[in-house]
Here is the input.
Amino acid sequence: MPVSSEPFAELIACPDCDAVQELPHVASGRLICCRCHATLERATGRFRGAALATATATLLLLIPADTMRLMSVSRYGLHGTSYIGSGVAVIWRQGWPATAIAVGLLVLVLPILRFGLLVISLAALTMSLRGLWVGRLFRYAEALDLWAMPDVFLIGCAIGYSRLAPFAVVRIGAGGWCFIGAALTAMLTRGLIERRRVWRGMGVAQPARGDSAFGCPGCQLVVPAGSEGGRCPRCARRLHRYLPGSMAVALALTVAGLLLYPVAMFYPANVLQYIGGRSPHSLFSAVERLLGAHFILLALAVFTTSILIPFVKLAGVLWFVVSVHRRSISHLVFKTRFFRAIDELGRWSAMDVFTVVVYLPMVQFGQLANVRAEDGLSALLAVVLLTVAASRCFDPRLLWKDAAA
Ligand SMILES: [Zn+2]
Ligand SMILES: [Zn+2]
Here is the structure.
């Protein structure tokens, strides 16, 4: 990893294990935590404005993607179209308003909010504007990263396309192409953003450290022990050595997720009604259908993301909570790596929900044929949201609380 010409090392506390360490400035490559092996900095070596450029492109592409036609389908003179908003509206009309609101937030509102905040904060830094508000906005944008799901929705669209393509003529609309562009630039932004460089760019001086210093959970600034309960001078986050109520909230969300998991797996997520019959589809039958149509990779993706990952996440968070309760200090590096993996992967479980959202408005042909959302869809979305929230609420630094430094 080439060392940058910027001369000063930065003092930070690892967000996963709270180890305080000095980071040299690198022009490209990764810097790893000496204690838990978390990636503390990933420098791409690209030009400084790369992330701002891709974030702006994402924001601009999201507007037509959200308002123009995603896909259309036609067969035997029947035509169906799908907009993101029409999927949300159909779910609402079919009697699932909470599910419709959650989907609308994840796919329509939060991506625009995340990229809007990111563009404002990165543009402010580029223009050398400073202030607590810049740190606050960048922290909000980062917190929304897991909840804004254009990339997950894109894969959901691909599966929706594969469901209809064998039976009808499916065309991708202008909104669909813009959405593909937005999802790709969103993924590019995730890869290009250099978080440590952004935080350093805020120009906030390192406070006097003292004994028992700890890290801000928002920006990893090392703050003295006496700062507990106050606000971070760089990102304005409330400072806590360990997130209050972390264990109880993570446990409550995990138990709720475990109770809903069987409903999400075995109850139909949607039902196709047609003259003379009805055909319910649960998650397991969706995997079987994809295998039957020889979409082996998509079948594997649905099985892994919608069936396996939610269960592994629920079991994992339960293991972490029990470990902290028993004050276990075994396998800490593995547990922390496992925590990072499930925290990052959990959002992909929403893929099958989004497939139904795309597919639903295209198959509304009155008495001839129509698709209805069922209990399994809401249960699956609830499990995904509960698992993402559970890992977000669990503070991994608690795992290291009793370990020697
Ligand atoms: Zn660490
Ligand atoms: Zn902070």
Q: What stands out?
A: The longest strand covers residues 39-43. DSSP finds 13 helices and twelve strands in the chain.
